[in-house]
Amino acid sequence: MKNKFPWYFRIPLLFFGIWGLMEFFIDGGDQPAFIAYPITQAFLLFILLLLISIELIISAIENVMFQTLSAEAQQRYLSAETKPMISFKWLRSLYLKLLGHDQKRPEEAIELDHNYDGIRELDNNLPPWWVYMFYATMLFGVVYLVRFHLIHDYDQTQEFEQELAQAQIDIENYKKTAKNLVDVNTVSLLTDASDLKAGKTIFENNCVACHMADGGGGIGPNLTDTHWILGGGIKKVFETISEGGRDGKGMIAWKQSLKPLEMAQVASYVIGMQGQTPANPKAAEGDILWPEELPSLEKAKE
Ligand code: HEC
Q1: C-alpha of residue 251 to centroid of ligand 1, in Å
Q2: Tell me: the pLDDT tens digits for 142-183?
Q3: Dist. CA 249 → ligand 1 center (Å)
Q4: Which residue, judged by its Cα, is nearest atom 41 of ligand 1?
Q5: In terms of Cα–Cα distance, which of 227, 166, 117 is closest to 236?
């Protein structure tokens, strides 16, 4: 088969073409499909192997057919064959060098004297890639011996402990960035301006209908006073927002619609309303006092 495109163009071209089609037809959301659906990686691997095996089969057939031609026809075939657009001469000669081919020595010179039914053996040099790798393993062995058996740089136990300590640090760091991991047991008052701003937005979008923008209360209780029906403090407030109020009172469980971090943000914002004076304060409800020492607000009401 005379082909202008050698295999190293055909295979990538077809492979990336099929990959492109796959990405076009499979919607992976905001990720490429091959990341969103790891099974497609198996598909791509299968396609790649298929393309390679097709190439191998074709070239094997070509080779067999070529052998069946007469010498003259072989000559004609070779001269008619189109040259590939690009041929990597230097790459090929490097490859042959790494394999230890010596073009100057004819095969007869290195042929060993046994011949089994036409199967001959050549006395080739060891391939240089193999020899140098062997030297490299020897060097590695010496360095390893000196470092770990003579100097005792570190041993497995130390390595294990180091990794364990690093893992602890990584977990702490992860928890810091993954604020969404908070729950009622781990939640703490957020003080970052950005968190409080986010909390304010969430409050304005979800809560003002019942609690008023300034927390003065309406259908829901006043959030600025020190009296709480369900309990004050970040943990209790987070729990109320997450799980809702008493049945039938109208305060739903927000964990369905707000993420843990969002509940922590809005809870922190609610705590921040403590002691403010709303325009239309609803009378204090609830028997739980928090913070326990009454701030000036309570005194002013008396
Ligand atoms: C449909 C009206 C309504 C909406 C919307 C609403 N709440 Fe409430 N909220 C209530 C009622 C009613 C209560 C009292 C629940 C009870 O008595 O068990 C309450 C109680 C609370 C309490 C506990 C107060 C206490 O004294 O213990 C907090 C904190 C609270 N809400 C925060 C929020 C936040 C934050 C939002 C927005 C994400 C919100 N609420 C949205 C009606 C509402």
Answers
A1: 5
A2: 999 999 999 999 999 999 999 999 999 999 888 777 778 888
A3: 9
A4: 207
A5: 227
- CA 136 to chain centroid: 34
Distance from Cα 64 to the centre of ligand 1, integer Å: 83
Start-end of H helices in the chain: 7-25, 33-36, 39-68, 71-80, 89-98, 128-144, 156-177, 193-206, 208-211, 234-243, 260-272, 296-301
Per-residue pLDDT tens for 244-278?
999 999 999 999 999 999 999 999 999 999 889 99
Question: Which pTM value belongs to this model?
Answer: 0.54
- Cβ atoms of residues 273 and 211 within 8 Å: no
Question: Which residue has the least CA distance to atom 16 on ligand 1?
Answer: 245
| 122 DSSP β-pair partners | 111
Q: Which amino acid is at 97?
A: K
Among 3.40.1280.10, 1.10.760.10, 2.60.40.10, 2.160.10.10, name the CATH number for the domain at 193-301: 1.10.760.10
Q: From residue 108, how far is each of 128, 172, 173, 175 by CA, in Å?
A: 22, 70, 68, 71
Joined together, the tokens standing for residue 291 give 């913070």
Q: Domain boundaries in the chain? A: 7-87, 105-151, 193-301
Averaged pLDDT of the chain: 87
> Which residues are CB-neighbours of 167 under 8 A, at least 6 positions away?
none
* Mean pLDDT confidence for 128-151: 95
Neighbours of 26 (CB within 10 A): 14
230 Cβ below 6 A of ligand 1: yes
Distances (CA, A) of 72 to 60, 78, 83, 94: 21, 10, 20, 32
Q: Dihedral sign, CA of 218, 223, 227, 230?
A: positive
pLDDT tens digits for 60-115?
999 999 999 888 888 888 887 766 656 678 888 888 777 777 767 777 888 888 88
